[in-house]
Each structure stands twice: as structure tokens, then as C-alpha cells.
Amino acid sequence: MPLIQSIDDLRKIARRRIPRAIFDYADGGSYQERTLRANAADLDALSFRQRVMVDVSSTSLATTVLGTKISMPLAIAPTGLAGLFHADGEILGAQAAAAFGIPFCLSTMSICSIEDVRAATNRPFWFQQYLMRDRGFNQALIERAIAAQCSALMLTLDLPLLGERWRDARNGLCIPPRLSLRNAWDVVTKPAWAMKVLFGKRRTFGNLVGHIKGASGVLNLAEWTHSQFDASATWRDVEWVRSRWPGRLILKGVLDADDARFALAAGADAVVVSNHGGRQLDGAPSTIEVLPEVVAAIDGRCEVLFDGGIRSGQDIAKALALGARAGLIGKSFLFALAAGGEAGVTRALDILRNELRVTLALTGTPNAAAAGPHMLRVRS
Ligand SMILES: Cc1cc2nc3c(=O)[nH]c(=O)nc-3n(C[C@H](O)[C@H](O)[C@H](O)COP(=O)(O)O)c2cc1C
């Protein structure tokens, strides 16, 4: 691999290695991408207090999330279709995360199935699902997650219907990806990707194939998925999931203090402050803007996780400073995966770990658990 110093370097490599439609699927957001940009811009706008003459000779990043020890306050967020960024992408992501000692969350909309990932890893992973109109399918997924010994179930709340992603429509993104006149040159110039993914073994929704009656064809599966997001779901449905899932429950997509309190009442063990990486409500606030109000509303009664815009260890440090227990990465993971498979993901985690370690030390913070608002400058 060429010299890789940052997540941005991995993003640039990813852009060269995978077709435009796949790259843009990760890189883009909904509509005018205002919230997507706000996630990064608001993180950038925060500055640290540099502190000196504090003993930071043994900075530790280790912490716990949901009672499990992890090596640093970071997890890999659920991302649909990760297996299109690199063959066996979800398996490689789970393996890299396991080796690093951080959680990996598998999306229902993954290419590798929950059973594929279970068979390839020996460390428990998290499993994400949406509320589907076919509740029997939710029930079946819960049973599969129990059988795979998943250590937490993440229920995503912010997708009752799909925000439009203009880049995907412009690029004619389709699942599974197909060779067409329109993308021929793009695909021909990415032969390694084409050989392994386009003509590879796993190219469609691994968790759905063979599990959906009357929708065995791959195109049908995509249609089925789109028709299944349940716009009628309410907190009662979250309670329904809570009553069926015996393990830790993480509610993802909380962006408001009132919703944080509802999530607690519905039985959340953790919430993820998330706007889906700027892919749903365009014009929603950035996640770093609302993090302090959600932390205040939760008031220590469950864990608060954070995602949206994390591209560096400095970004993770800012989220910790404002009360997150850990951050999650979506795009940074996918770019790393596309750039170099498991080695790429490991490199990304290494970069984030080193940046976080140095940032904590230079703000005079001896360990991740001691992070707090004192690390940030208050603007007058
Ligand atoms: C390509 C892509 C696919 C995603 N698929 C899912 C998904 O299947 N389920 C889900 O809950 N969130 C999904 N997300 C949202 C991520 O879990 C996470 O909230 C978001 O990526 C965090 O922002 P970041 O990309 O800036 O790190 C997806 C994000 C991306 C970029």
C-alpha cells in the first residue's frame, strides 16, 4: 500500500479502486447533503484546550461498552452492502475489529449473512436491524442473531422511509451491481474489484436470500427491502423488539432530547446519537451539535454512543469530551475496506488509535475515561 497517513488518504485510494457508483453510495448523503457537511464542519469548528506539564506517560484508551472491555472507544457502525466495497467485506471488517478488540456491527442489509460472519469470527459481534412491515422477518432475524450469539442488537430508528440520495439516482446504482454501457469504462478500469466483487460469489443481500418467500430473485430482494421499511412504526414497536431480544439493546438514530427519554423508557441499554451519517433528514443538526443535549437527557441512565463525521482520532476525542462513551465509524470503515480489505481497516483503526492517544495526551487527559468538556475551548 502507498503511504497512508490519514483516513482521507484511504478515501482517495478507495476512490481509485472502486466504481464511482459504489464510492458515491458511501461518500454521499441525502438531498443537498447539508447535514452530511454539517457533521464534519461542526466537528472541525471545535478546538481543544492544549494543556502542558501533566503526566501523560501512560495514556490508556481501554474502556467498556455495554459491560464489555474494548481496547479503544470506537466501534464499526452497521453499513449496508459493505461486501460491495471489497469481497467478503463484512467478514474482513469483523475480523479486523475482533483483532483490534473493538465491536463490529453487522447490518441486516449486508452482503455476507449473519451466519457467514459468525462462521468466520470467534468474537461476538453486534447485529443491526430496522423495523420491517413483515414483523415475522424481524422475529426471524432476532432468532438468527440469538443463534449467532450476537452480543447486542442495534435497532435503527431513523429510517421509517428512505431519504433520497441524489448521487445514487444519478449513478444508476443497482443491487447487485451490473455491467452496463453506462458504467463499462468505470468497471473495466477497476479490474481487481470487478473480478472479486462483480463476478464474485456474494453480491446481494446475504441476510435475505432464501429467507423471503416469493422474493428469491435478486432484483425482487431490492424491491422487497424498499417496500419493507415501516413508516407506521412507533415506540410500542421498539418495546415489542425489547420484549423479544434478551440481550443488550442499542437504539440508533436518536437526535433529540425528548426521543432520548423515550428510548430510555423503551428499555435501551445504549443510544446512538446519529443522523445516519447525513443520509436521511437533510437539514437535521449535526450529531456533535446535539450530543450534549442527549447526554444531559440520558443523565447517566444508559450509555450514549456517537456517530457522524468521524474521520480522525481528534474527532473521537471531541465526541468523548462532549459525553459520548464511544464513537462509531461508517464511511471511514468503508473507505478503508475498499482501499485495502482487512489490512486497510486495520490501518484505519491504527491511525484513529494513534491520533486519539496523542490528542488525549496533548489535552492533558491521561485516559479515555477522563475525557470531558474541560478538553475543549469555550468560545466567547
Ligand atoms: C454506505 C452506508 C450504508 C449504511 N447502512 C446502514 C445500515 O444498513 N443500517 C444502519 O443503521 N445505518 C447505516 N448507515 C449509517 C451508519 O451506521 C452510520 O450511522 C453513519 O455512517 C455514521 O456516519 P459516518 O459515515 O460519517 O461515520 C450506513 C452508512 C453508510 C455510509
Q: Would you spell out the secondary-structure blueprint of this structure?
A:
Elements: H1 7-17, H2 20-27, H3 34-45, E1 63-65, E2 68-70, E3 74-76, H4 89-100, E4 105-107, H5 114-120, E5 126-130, H6 135-147, E6 152-156, H7 166-171, H8 184-188, H9 191-198, H10 218-228, H11 235-244, E7 248-254, H12 257-265, E8 270-273, H13 287-298, E9 303-307, H14 313-321, E10 326-329, H15 331-362
Parallel strand pairs: 3-10, 4-5, 5-6, 6-7, 7-8, 8-9, 9-10
Antiparallel strand pairs: 1-2
Helix pairs in contact: 1-15, 4-15, 12-13, 14-15
Bound molecules: flavin mononucleotide.
Which labels suit this protein?
two-stranded antiparallel sheet; binds flavin mononucleotide; 15 helices; alpha/beta; 380 residues; eight-stranded parallel β-sheet; 43% helix; 10 strands
